[in-house]
Design brief:
- It contains four helices and eight strands.
- It is α+β, with helices and mostly antiparallel strands.
- The chain has one domain: Alpha-D-Glucose-1,6-Bisphosphate, Chain A, domain 4 (2-Layer Sandwich), CATH 3.30.530.20.
- It has an eight-stranded antiparallel sheet with strand order 1-2-8-7-6-5-4-3, covered by helices on one side.
- A hairpin with a 5-residue loop joins strand 7 and strand 8.
- It starts with a strand and ends with a helix.
Length: 189
């Protein structure tokens, strides 16, 4: 798995001509995170599973639910630190079948975000899946620190979620680890 912490950017799709993982124009005040993993499955299979956003809760640990409203609009409910949840509506802004999905949260999102997920052939090894996410951390730098402490920070979650996506698509299940009492109690609210 390849990790890339990029810095700050206005939007995951609003950058210079360099790939997201090497973007050079980093103005603005949004955090930008890029992660990649190679999955031993064809791009078409991975794209189809990911594109049905209701499936995302099956491997994305912090997603409570995604309600698909139509082919380009969805409502997201995601776990936040302290047993809270955050919500937003999102719009798919660009899509290339079996290759890429780009989205942007709508106005009024609890956590404004945008991103892109790409699916590129790795030949006999399968497909390289890259997720690039730009977001405004609630509470700024302090909020980001709190999110890290509660393991709810997007840079941490992107790596874990892609690892779980790989497990699910290659083996049909996601391996789980024992939860600590603190994690268990936090989930109970």
């Amino acid at each position: 798995m390849t990790d890339h912490i990029i810095g700050r950017d206005r939007d995951a799709t609003d950058r210079d001509d360099a790939p997201a993982t090497t973007a050079k124009d980093l103005g603005g005040d949004r955090e930008l995170v890029g992660r990649s993993v190679t999955i031993n499955r064809p791009a078409s299979e991975l794209f189809a599973y990911f594109r049905d956003f209701a499936n995302l809760a099956s491997f994305m640990e912090n997603i409570v639910r995604v309600e698909v409203r139509d082919p380009t609009h969805s409502h997201w409910v995601v776990k936040a630190p302290g047993g809270k949840t955050v919500e937003w509506d999102a719009t798919v802004t660009h899509e290339i079948e079996n290759e890429a999905i780009t989205w942007q949260s709508d106005e009024g999102a609890d956590v404004p975000n945008s991103g892109r997920i790409t699916f590129k052939s790795a030949g006999a090894r399968g497909t390289v899946v890259t997720a690039t996410i730009a977001y405004d951390p609630p509470g700024g730098a302090i909020g980001k620190i709190v999110a890290k402490l509660f393991q709810r920070e997007p840079a941490i979650q992107a790596r874990r979620d892609l690892r779980r996506f790989k497990q699910l698509m290659e083996t049909g299940e996601v391996a789980t680890a024992a939860r600590t009492i603190k994690q268990f109690n936090e989930e109970l609210g």
